Amino acid sequence: MGRMTEKADLASGRATLSDVAREARVSLATADRVLNNRAGVHAKSIARVREAVARLNYRPDPAAARLARTRSHRWCLVLPSGGNAFVAQLQAELAACRAWLEDHRASVQILEVDVFEPQRLADLLRSLQGQCETAIVMGLDHPLVQNAIDGLVDGGCEVITLVSDVPRSRRHAYVGIDNAAAGRTAASLLGRFVGREPGEVGVVAGSLSLRDHAERCLGFNQVMTTEFTHLTVLPAVQGKDSPALNEVLVRQLLAEHPRLRAIYSVGAGNAGISAALKAAGREREVVFIGHELTPAARADLLDGTLDAVINQDAGHEIRSALRQALARATREPVHADQERIRIDIYLKDNLP
Amino acid sequence: MGRMTEKADLASGRATLSDVAREARVSLATADRVLNNRAGVHAKSIARVREAVARLNYRPDPAAARLARTRSHRWCLVLPSGGNAFVAQLQAELAACRAWLEDHRASVQILEVDVFEPQRLADLLRSLQGQCETAIVMGLDHPLVQNAIDGLVDGGCEVITLVSDVPRSRRHAYVGIDNAAAGRTAASLLGRFVGREPGEVGVVAGSLSLRDHAERCLGFNQVMTTEFTHLTVLPAVQGKDSPALNEVLVRQLLAEHPRLRAIYSVGAGNAGISAALKAAGREREVVFIGHELTPAARADLLDGTLDAVINQDAGHEIRSALRQALARATREPVHADQERIRIDIYLKDNLP
DNA sequence: CTGTTAGCGCTTTCAC
DNA sequence: GTGAAAGCGCTAACAG
After folding, report:
1. CATH numeric code, B74-176+315-341
2. Does B193 lie at the interface with A, CB-CB under 8 angstroms?
3. Is the CB of A16 under 7 A from strand C?
């Protein structure tokens, strides 16, 4: 219907913002204002531009936008202090994204904070207000933290939770796995690996007040109690993700339960569990399943101490969080499919 | 040592090609020629530019390059005709990359060819000469094909093999999984799921002359014969990836081997195997492991017919092939880590 | 063999 | 409210 311009019609390429501006009978600047939701444009103009965008099927060229943009993006990444191997992996993967960040005119500041101190984390989050345009936080699901996140969001900061969600907050996105499903996966694998003989199953968690650990336990128990009724899941013991503590706990478990058939390690500190099993000479006969493919886990998988590892790809998580931060900042679309974090299962045979 | 320019020194941003040109005392155009290995530059100039690049730590801005480039990329994707579900997934994932392709000024032409006809495939490949700058081919490992690939490569076409490699060819890259490792993974899982009772294990392949199928069998047998000696792996039967043929073959298997404990399906056509198991009422007791998470496989996993699926992520493979095609065309670096295709294991519990 | 110059499609002052 | 115009950092003619 509408009159069409030669260029929009004939040119093999896509419509540009100038095309849109011309069609809408406004200037390039005004078209840009509408596209980027900047204030101070007459409703009439807005409508005309929108209409032209739709009619010409206009999509901004991200390369041009990136090149023209002078302001650069400031993001923050909040991680637990005290360096367990998985957190170290996240840091390493971030470092590997340096060139990508430069290319996209973005910089990331890493902040460390004690995970077990909700107040500290909340304070830190609050201090980020105005310091960065988006905060990527590997958090702790606690009312104080939830509240601090909501405060940041209200202040106009984008918030993305990483690895461990704070679902009741108003964070803009969560990058990580479904931990209940991960727990169920561990249970299916463990149950089938143990086989028919009855016996007990030990569960070693870091802390059940960590949302991801609690959810994994939930999923695990759900499957064990419905599908593997010949196995008794012992109450979870908590070792604060510490190898030393875990070792003691597993020694006790082994001593007290001669029929212990398997161990599910929900959190970190697997080295301790591995050590206790080896000390008892039962590392081959007790089925042992844990999380996160660290270098140590890899070795234990290869020598048969660990039977399977449930993993979330740290590199994928970091890249996904960064891509989403960028997409939100530039209002580019995200390829949802590519951002779904998989629950990886590793046996010794399919190690990367 | 070298005298440095204000801009290179002080500016917070990165060095630009103009900086490099100035430092090397040549023009922008000459600097560009060196950077893009274009002919007709004095050795002296080349050296000076290279030195300046190194000294300033110059890295081209991909956004600027993409914007300035007028020529667009023409790529071809060669797929087997006859549409099995996995190939359909690849097509769908390519379609989902449309916007990405547009943004990168690239277009992909899909070509279908009968996989079981090496001569046809070889002819098709040869016809691509000069038609596209890179060919992404899901091929067939046969001397004729290998030869055609080498011909393309000699003619200056980039070649990337997808899903099934042609390792003796001079293709520039392979995007896909290690199929022997995938076979080993299937064996480990199957062996442990079956448990201690002795019995037979059936193997259903599409065609052992397909490299990926042959390699999976190899890996599978390797693990079965060393780690699960109480199980006897029957000779592989070949069903050409056809559900109908596979159903007949599995009916026979079930009839002839009352102690059949498990089936490993190496290729496509799992619907037939599933049907045969259900017809015999043995779908829950026979362990069934196959490849590729198609919609049908998903359903069989959920109802317990399939016990595990070994998968390669079609979306990841397509995106990875496209990114590598782009990287080769623009000589941008690739993030190797991100391009490694995982051997995914899916149980009903960790379905995406 | 080398340099000059005009864009690519946006963003962003700065004037009106 | 709106528009004109100057870049962003590279590529690609086109002259020398």
Report:
1. 3.40.50.10550
2. yes
3. yes
pLDDT at A2: 36
Q: Which CATH architecture describes the domain B2-57?
A: Orthogonal Bundle (1.10)
- The single-letter DSSP state of residue A135 is E
Q: Which residue of A has its CA nearest to B179?
A: A350
| Cα dihedral B205, B209, B211, B215 in deg (nearest 10) | 50
Map out the domains of chain B as residue ranges.
2-57, 74-176+315-341, 179-311
Beta-carbon pairs below 8 A across chains A and B: 99
Whether B350 and A333 lie within 8 Å, measured CB to CB: no
Judged by C1' against the alpha carbon of B48, the nearest nucleotide is C2
**How do residues A109-124 score in pLDDT, each as one tens digit?**
999 998 778 999 999 9
Torsion, Cα of B149, B180, B343, B115 (10° steps): 40
- The pLDDT of residue B11 is 45
Cα B67 to Cα A19, A63, B45, B103, B161, distances in angstroms: 17, 6, 27, 9, 29
Domain B74-176+315-341 and domain B179-311, same fold? Reply is yes
Distance (Å) from the C-alpha of residue A91 to the closest C-alpha of chain B?
15
> Domain spanning B179-311 has what CATH number?
3.40.50.2300
When mean pLDDT is compared across A41-45, A207-211, B170-174, the lowest value belongs to A207-211
The answer, yes or no, to whether residue B8 has pLDDT greater than 70, is no
Is A349 within 8 Å of B181 when comparing Cβ atoms? yes
d(CA A13, CA A29): 22
Nearest CA in chain A to B107: A13
